UniProtKB/TrEMBL annotation:
Role summary: Catalyzes the 2-thiolation of uridine at the wobble position (U34) of tRNA, leading to the formation of s(2)U34.
Organism: Mycolicibacterium sarraceniae
One GO cellular component term: cytoplasm
Keyword line: ATP-binding, Cytoplasm, Disulfide bond, Nucleotide-binding, RNA-binding, Transferase, tRNA processing, tRNA-binding
Gene name in the database record: mnmA
Name this protein carries in UniProt: tRNA-specific 2-thiouridylase MnmA
Length: 358
């Protein structure tokens, strides 16, 4: 089998590529250049896709004895991930750029090019498993990335491989060291890769500018403060609201709603954040089969969040989810991912982009 190994320069994708070589496949390594100024996209463990990362990936490929290339996807990444991220915040949403990158770049643009060149699958260092075409959680629950892969279609999953999903992260580092890979102790990247400073508000402010609005008490309608744009807020936020203090009850205030059209941010009590139902658009069914009728499931709405029991049903072009246990702080633009509530509880059923929670 011809395998294109997506090599970020980190330990996970390096070991994934090594395992595909061990399995006897014809492997070619590729590093995606996602920035027009790659030297600026890593600060310690922040960011990724820097010249340093490309060099690390190349050195691993040399150790493995496989061909290695750098492919320029900077324009596509800017349009499909960064511009989408900024536009989503402009609309008062809270997007997950890692979800969009997997959907639009790694398993769409990259996979399309790989298949056109005669490769059978794209192998990545994601912590997830594939079993008979079904997407499942990784063995290492703390590192599991099935949530950010839940947007992949059955066709995309047929051409994907996740070689390290059956192994805990510490064992991956040990394996990299045994193989003599220089990235064995390289820090994991975290936060948003294209914001290496970690200052999301400054990044958004530089691109969106000042759009003044008000912070309003949800109960009384009183204007509590002014702000420079709704892109500086997200549902559930407690700090940095610019208000004088807690509410009349002496308790903290939280962002409960955002209206981008009027540039209004509403704040209220913690209890006001409780959500008992969700509506999502653009549903994706990872098995390729749309469930008929209501389906018992578990739903996850954050990459590192827990799951709650729910009942989901497709209504028209929407996925509607009734939660058996309320959750807090859900924002439009987030991704909901459904899991099958079997004893293992690890199979992804579907995903959708949240448009409404109530």
């Amino acid at each position: 089998m011809r395998v294109l190994a997506a090599m970020s320069g980190g330990v996970d994708s390096s070991v994934a590529a090594a395992r595909m070589v061990d399995a006897g496949h014809e492997v070619v390594g590729v590093h995606l250049a996602l920035s027009k100024a790659p030297g600026a996209l890593r600060t310690g463990s922040r960011g990724c896709c820097s010249k340093e990362d490309a060099g690390d990936a190349r050195r691993v490929a040399d150790v493995l004895g496989i061909p290695f290339y750098v492919w320029d996807f900077a324009d596509r990444f800017a349009e499909d991930v960064i511009d989408d991220f900024v536009a989503s915040y402009e609309r008062g949403e809270t997007p997950n750029p890692c979800v969009r990158c997997n959907e639009k770049i790694k398993f769409s643009a990259l996979a399309v090019k790989a298949l056109a060149l005669g490769f059978d699958v794209v192998a990545t260092g994601h912590y997830a498993r594939l079993s008979q075409g079904r997407l499942r959680r990784a063995v290492d629950v703390d590192k599991d990335q099935s949530y950010v892969l839940g947007v992949l279609s059955a066709r995309q999953l047929r051409h994907a491989a996740f070689p390290i999903g059956d192994t805990p992260k510490p064992a991956i580092r040990e394996e990299a060291a045994r193989r003599g890979l220089s990235v064995a102790e390289k820090p994991d990247s975290h936060d948003i890769c294209f914001i290496p400073s970690g200052d999301t508000q400054a990044f958004l402010g530089a691109r969106i500018g000042v759009r003044r609005g008000t912070v309003v008490d949800d109960a009384s309608g009183a204007v509590l403060a002014e702000h420079d744009g709704v892109h500086g807020f997200t549902i559930g936020q407690r700090k940095g609201l610019g208000i004088a203090g807690p509410g009349p009850d002496g308790l903290p205030r939280y962002v409960t709603a955002i209206d981008a059209e009027s540039q209004t941010v509403r704040v209220g009590a913690k209890e006001d954040l409780e959500i008992r139902s969700l509506t999502g658009t653009q549903p994706v069914f990872t098995s390729g089969v749309m469930p008929q009728g209501p389906v018992e499931c578990e739903v996850q709405v954050r990459a590192h969040g827990g799951v709650v029991p729910a009942v989901a049903e497709v209504v028209g072009d929407e996925l509607r989810v009734a939660l058996r246990t309320p959750i807090r702080g859900v924002a439009p633009g987030q991704t909901l991912v459904l899991y099958r509530p079997d004893p293992a509880g690890d199979e992804v059923i579907a995903s959708a982009t949240i448009t409404l929670g109530r």
